[in-house]
Amino acid sequence: GEALAVSARVAPLGSRLVLLLVEDLTEARRIEAVRRDFVANVSHELKTPVGALSLLSEAVMGASDDPEAVERFAGRMQIEATRLTSLVQELIDLSRVQNDDPLEGAEPVRVDELVAEAIDRCRHQAGSKQITMAAGGTADLHVWGHRGQLAAALGNLVENAVNYSPARTRVGIAARRVNAPGGDLIEVAVTDQGIGISDKDKERIFERFYRVDPARSRATGGTGLGLAIVKHVAASHGGEVTVWSSAGQGSTFTLRLPEAGAARARAHAPQHSA
Ligand code: ADP
Asked: How remote is the CA of residue 55 from the centroid of ligand 1, in Å?
């Protein structure tokens, strides 16, 4: 309606200009809608654990003469509080990767260190499910970027691989250098033998708060923000993240990032005066 009214008003300026204006309006409106949806989603996601905490605290007060019940309710309060904490932490991470220029603090980052850190982060969970993690090809590879953001991105991919896999399966992390027209890239592929992702869901999993199975995601402490963070980090570093998956057979998430070539590494090295 509004866009049409504007186009009618500026029609004498020529149809090309009108088209541009209408496209601009549509884009501005789309961005505004995305922002509104995000705020609505955040509110909803925060309300769930806060609501549960409020009910549970009432239950604790009503059960003061039953120590076992108090303990049970307190345990559930702890779970909800943990969920709230990780949601807030992921929101902070997301806003950081969206607002900070990753290339401001960029440096050559060793791929073997990033991979070791990501594995460490999930060691406990993988151990309890008897999932084996194996990494290969990482020696002597360096990517160019913001260490903390890169660690968060790879950590999220490995964490998901463990979360969405059954017990006694394998998670593999393979790195290699690939030639590309604009300079070599480092490819890090995280492969699992988990539940997989359907074609329909593949297009949406990188959206904020999108989950294939919200109940399962919540049960494993998921927030629905992890892949949005990964996608943003990849793009802002001049790279990309892609997914290959076959439902029921597993998934491979591939992160491609610019290599920290010799020239960049030298430029960054501390200067020694003669
Ligand atoms: P979450 O916190 O729910 O894991 P993510 O943004 O990391 O949020 O992932 C979004 C959704 O994509 C998940 O809820 C899950 O349904 C799906 N997903 C992500 N990684 C995998 C994987 N390795 N295997 C199967 N499904 C996955």
From this structure: 29
> What three-state secondary structure class fits 184?
coil
Tokens of 124: 């406990």
Contact in structure between 165 and 171 (CB atoms under 8 Å): yes
Distance from residue 205's CA to the centre of ligand 1 (Å): 7
Closest alpha carbon to 140 in 95, 184, 191: 184
Each residue of 31-76: pLDDT tens digit? 888 888 899 999 999 999 999 999 999 999 999 899 999 999 999 9
Nearest to 267 by CA among 86, 142, 173: 142
Cα(47) to centroid(ligand 1), Å: 22
Assess whether the C-beta atom of 222 lies below 6 angstroms from ligand 1: yes
Q: Is 153 in the pocket of ligand 1 (CB under 6 A)?
A: no
Q: What is the spatial distance between Cα 100 and Cα 89, in angstroms, rounded to a whole number?
A: 16
Q: Containing H/E element for 250? A: strand 250-258
* Nearest CA residue ID for atom 19, ligand 1: 160
**Predicted ipTM > 0.85:** yes
Name the maximum alpha-carbon separation found in the chain.
Answer: 80
At 169-210, the pLDDT tens digits run 999 999 999 998 888 999 999 999 999 999 999 989 999 999
Q: Which of 227, 242, 249 for mutating ligand 1's site (highest number of atoms within 8 Å of CB)?
A: 227
Report the pLDDT value the prediction gives residue 273, as an integer from 0 to 100.
46
For residue 90 and ligand 1, the question of a CB distance below 6 A is answered with no
Alpha carbon distance 243, 210 (integer Å): 15
**pLDDT value of residue 33:** 86
Distance 160 CA to ligand 1 centre (A): 6
Q: Which residue has the tokens 């030298």?
A: 266
pLDDT of residue 4: 57
